[in-house]
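Reminder to self: tokens first, then the designed residues, so the page reads top to bottom the way the pipeline ran.
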């Protein structure tokens, strides 16, 4: 009988101690957190900057650091390589086209880091390179100047054969 009482007390204590965490997790699942909203705002700003043809403003969504990593057709390390890669691939507004993001999901990892998954679509003329789309996984960091991308793994969908 004493063993049953001890087990019951341990289980009760475990439930009581985990209770606040469970309710916090439930609250987060129902409504985006302030951090998630800030991350989504940063991405929306990037799309707006891109669609204005302003690569320098778009790039401010990335942490200006030598240790960021961009994985696309090539691997680029550091802010300068990332920006140079964008400039080479998208030399003018026609090549940039109109950018939209969809299926965005923010997954907080802790108070300072989160991941974001989503899809991108570039609507472009054939002279600008034609439409392009794909998906990405970002790691973002909360910095004194806001949420910034520190890892970007972007994959283009295969282009249809002609």
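Designed residues (162 positions):
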């Amino acid at each position: 009988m004493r063993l049953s009482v001890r087990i019951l007390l341990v289980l009760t204590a475990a439930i009581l101690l985990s209770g606040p965490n469970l309710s916090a997790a439930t609250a987060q699942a129902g409504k985006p957190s302030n951090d998630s909203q800030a991350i989504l705002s940063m991405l929306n700003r990037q799309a707006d900057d891109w669609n204005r043809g302003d690569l320098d403003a778009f790039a401010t969504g990335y942490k200006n650091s030598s240790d960021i990593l961009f994985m696309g057709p090539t691997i680029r390390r550091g802010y300068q390589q990332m920006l140079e890669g964008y400039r080479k691939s998208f030399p003018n507004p026609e090549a940039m086209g109109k950018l939209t993001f969809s299926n965005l999901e923010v997954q907080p990892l802790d108070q300072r880091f989160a991941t974001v998954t989503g899809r991108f679509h570039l609507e472009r003329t054939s002279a600008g390179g034609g439409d392009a789309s794909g998906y990405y996984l970002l790691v973002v960091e909360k910095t004194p100047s806001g949420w910034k991308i520190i890892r970007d793994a972007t994959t283009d969908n295969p282009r249809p054969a002609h």
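The two ends are 77 Å apart (CA to CA).
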